[in-house]
Amino acid sequence: MLELTIDVSTNKDFWKRVLTLTQSKTETAEVRLGVSHDEYPRRCNERVRELANYLRRAHNALSAPSPPQPAPVPEVVSDEDRQEAEGAPCDQAPKLTLPIRQLSLSTLHPDHLELWVTDQAGHLWHSWYWTSTGWQPWHEMEVPGSVGAFAAGETTELRQDLFVATDEDVQHRHCILEGSDSTEGTPPPPERNATWSPWQPFKKFPGGRIEQLGLATTGKHHLEAWAIDQAGGLWNSWLVDPDDWSEWSKFKTPGRVLSTAAGCRVDGHQDLFIATDDGISTCRHESRWGPWWDFQPQLDGRRVTRLGVSRLTAGHLELWALDGGGSLWHCWSRHQDEWQPWKQFDTPSPVVTFVAGQRADHRQELVVATDTGLYLSSYLADGEATRWEPWEGLPTASSEPG
After folding, report:
1. Within a 10 A sphere around the Cβ of 391, how many other Cβ atoms?
2. Among 5, 187, 196, 351, which is least packed, fewest CB within 10 Å?
3. Are 216 and 239 in contact, with CB atoms under 8 Å apart?
4. What is the pLDDT of residues 66-105, one digit of tens each?
């Protein structure tokens, strides 16, 4: 077993509070990471990095006032693609301002996470995270029109796809990180080139204006786009070949759809959830789509405005729901059709919108946007310590002076 010794002879008061998690009564703590050097050398390195990140966040949480405040505002660079985004700051560039309209998450590698947001003006922004360097400044991505809805997701490791719906049509592009499809060995450095393809018109959407856009997968090399039209109709299009998509198809639902989310519990399967005026319904794709049924348990008496899905590992699925009062709820399942009761999730303030996702196996990420900022929490279920980390304020830019 890999053990890490932490010297707490300085700043004893703070570390005493942290080390209560390990039940240590000495000035050093041997933290068991639960990974064998011989069997999983890469995972050992990951766990050391995860522990370092956890201790950093714990220090911030114990030192900062409550609720957490966003980090200092970085400079903002306007760009068309990732390579241009690495250029010099542009003082005349637009600034990401609150409130946030929509969020999305995508990933290229277990050490990478990318956060996407749209502001009220329809601008699309992104910031990305590597375990070795942390979060990068916000960059505006040039889009052929004002963004009404968008979605980001990954088809395979080292490739992410981005869809935007404008007033005119749906546009699509993808980003490929140089390297192989393997996670073995040393993680790719953050300076590795990540090349975005040009924007291309997607399949013509026959349902008019798209109100919500989402992406889901049933495993490697598969991606499915879900769209809600103005009348609450649900549509889907799926990847047929590596760069060939099906035409949009109308998906029959038991009522007007307010929000939708889909997730993959195990490879080859997909669970689809919708919120209607009558509650939450679900159906499942195995060899084909099954019938709709009422999801249990229901959020009785609460109107759901947005749904989200995440998972920790194969067999686990977590459903998230935002109600009309800005409260965030979640329930989870480790076995098919066996769901835990809904539980309200503590947030820094009422939530405007949110996104939940997975960066690596045994780890899920949650980002919420409130009227005061963006906040991130992570859940790591690998070993004895399985808990949501304290909220971390993410930087945003304000149009106000100072």
Report:
1. 22
2. 5
3. no
4. 444 444 333 333 344 444 444 333 344 567 888 899 999 9
